[in-house]
Amino acid sequence: MSISKVLATTAASALLAASFSAAAATDTVYGSEFGTGSSYTTSILDTSVTFYAKTGEKRNQLKDAVFSYKPAQDGYQGVGVSPKRGSDVTVGEIDKHEWIIAKFDESLVISNLTLGLLFNGPEYGDNKEQASITVTYFDNSTSTFKLIATGNDTASWTGFGSVTNLSPAIQDLGGVWSLDNPFGDTAVKSFSLTSLKDKSDFTLYSVSAVPEPESYAMLALGLGLLGFANRRKSRKLYA
Questions:
Q1: Is-contact 75 63, C-beta < 8 A?
Q2: Rounded Cα gap, residues 56 and 157, in angstroms
Q3: Is 18 exposed, middle or buried (0-12, 13-18, 19+ CB in 10 A)?
Q4: How many CB atoms lie within 10 A of CB 152?
Q5: Quick one: the chain helix, strand, coil %, rounded to 5?
Q6: What phi-psi label fits residue 160: left (phi over 0), alpha (psi between -120 and 50 degrees) or beta?
Q7: CB-CB contact of 49 with 92 (8 Å)
Q8: Taking the complete model, does pTM exceed 0.85, yes or no?
Q9: What is the rounded distance in angstroms from the CA atom of residue 75 to the CA atom of residue 189?
Q10: Are 38 and 85 in contact, with CB atoms under 8 Å apart?
Q11: Helix (H) or strand (E) holding 42
Q12: Which pLDDT tens digit goes with each residue over 45-59?
């Protein structure tokens, strides 16, 4: 076998392995890791993402806040927001006029969002609590979706994908909801979480992401081109 053929075969194998790796790749960041500052920067699949704690009535007039926590229920420790100064309605949760905003340096598809402490009442005097989630895609279009607890283990979700209960929304349990593929297969540049109602508060438990579908297509194209070049070289060798 010629050196060029060996190199082509090796490159094709590497691309194939990378393709399978990318297809299976996923990464998760947990709210319990955010600390108690105003922002937290980490990476998801080698893409930098910064989470910000904010307060304010209007999205374009927000002030810095801090991440805060309350004891976990049913083992699910999420993160909330508290103002830097003044009183807080519910320490360790995202209340009305409190925000967690995530900004990504490069395009990623959000494969899962998990939110906690979202109840349907009357356990804590809350009725059908709801989370408001606004996403900005990489084409700068925006959409706003709502997750509303409708029962002990049922909720309505106005976005894409599906919602699953991980812990029942009853006294002393977590009211934890998993949103799979919440924004569809379109890559995002940012999203924000807030509450639009009094007595509607919740926590961010985790965020998971996968590479955008175009990266799979590029790997497949590269693999196909290498395979084509390899076949041409083989024909020449035996012509």
A1: no
A2: 25
A3: middle
A4: 14
A5: 20, 40, 35
A6: beta
A7: no
A8: no
A9: 30
A10: no
A11: strand 39-44
A12: 999 999 999 999 988
